[in-house]
């Protein structure tokens, strides 16, 4: 995509994150070790599964309306329409996110007006409007504010969306609309062998991007990057990848193997569009290319590699939690999850694509630039040990 997202309303640059909530990839430890996602969410990228973690929790607790980490207090906040259902909701959340992250102590319960089920239903309704409403770029559930969030790129689209909400008979106080815009930029990176996460890669049609991480998929060694970094997004095209950015036979490192388009996970996709969960693709390594499983590059202020992060597992990041990102053009960034499971629509390389269930993180450091797309998103566990959270 070669662009980053900025909120005009002043909350900083946004990172689009394809969550690893349902990844079948092994990406940790040494070549003999492997980690996987929790059993209740581990599925193939091409299999049917509900990637929306908050929706999964809401099926077990009807009053559940989201949870997030309060940026000021550090407390976990759980939204409920009925606070007497606290224990049921906490158990449902623990079953999905892990009991080590959810406890009755230190959790703040907040009573809100709308349940997650209601907000998701309204979000899905507005997501369909995106197809024929110019200027609407993102739709999601803002758990902090108990609203459906709609991102638009101009005031005209904002006005149109308000009219659409009236036509759909949706409650005005359940929505927030904000201006968003894209920016473009450029940069460089060196040859790195063995391959590790965070380094620069390129394709003939997409230009420069970032490798998220090396992974094994069903016994095949490869790496993961963003689908929009491939020659044709959300399409299997056997495109070649190169590292570093120079396109030549000697720098070829892999061939796209998995980049699904519309399937049964993404219903209600109009003719002429591709709708899919997650902006992610798997690239099979070229024979003879060396790689290191479970390693993400650490960088200094000059973008030199200064050691590695060690992947010890995957972890679903929730709203308000800290995350880190490595981009091959600009290096290390820190930020936090702003919202989860948003829907984005747009045209990428002449392909109409709607990306569904994309998490968004706010970058608190320097802006991202073109070429940072596809980089690893992670949470630091301790020192150099990290949990992968997305791409």
Describe the structure.
The chain has 391 residues and is mainly β. The N terminus is likely disordered.
Any low-confidence stretches, pLDDT <50, length ≥5?
Answer: 1-13, 30-50, 184-188
Helix content: 10-25%
What is the subunit organization of this protein? single chain
Q: Report the strand count.
A: 24
Dominant shape: globular
The chain-level structural class is mainly beta
Rg computed from alpha carbons, rounded to a whole number of angstroms: 20 Å
Note the gap between the termini: 13 Å
Number of helices: 4
Mean pLDDT: 82
Report the β-strand fraction as a percent range. Answer: 35-45%
Main sheet: strand order: 1-2-22-21-6-7-8
Instruction: Sketch the topology as an H/E string, one letter per element.
Output: EEHEEHEHEEHEEEEEEEEEEEEEEEEE
What summary fits the major beta sheet?
7 strands, mixed, barrel
Question: How do you describe this structure in short?
Answer:
The protein is mainly β and 391 residues long.
Per-chain topology:
Layout: E1 4-7, E2 12-17, H1 53-58, E3 64-69, E4 76-80, H2 86-97, E5 107-111, H3 116-129, E6 136-142, E7 147-152, H4 155-167, E8 175-183, E9 195-197, E10 200-203, E11 207-210, E12 213-217, E13 220-225, E14 240-242, E15 252-258, E16 274-277, E17 281-285, E18 291-299, E19 305-314, E20 322-327, E21 331-348, E22 351-363, E23 377-382, E24 385-390
Parallel strand pairs: 4-5, 7-8, 9-18, 16-22, 19-24
Antiparallel strand pairs: 1-2, 1-8, 2-22, 3-4, 6-7, 6-21, 10-11, 12-13, 13-17, 14-15, 15-17, 18-19, 20-21, 20-23, 21-22, 23-24
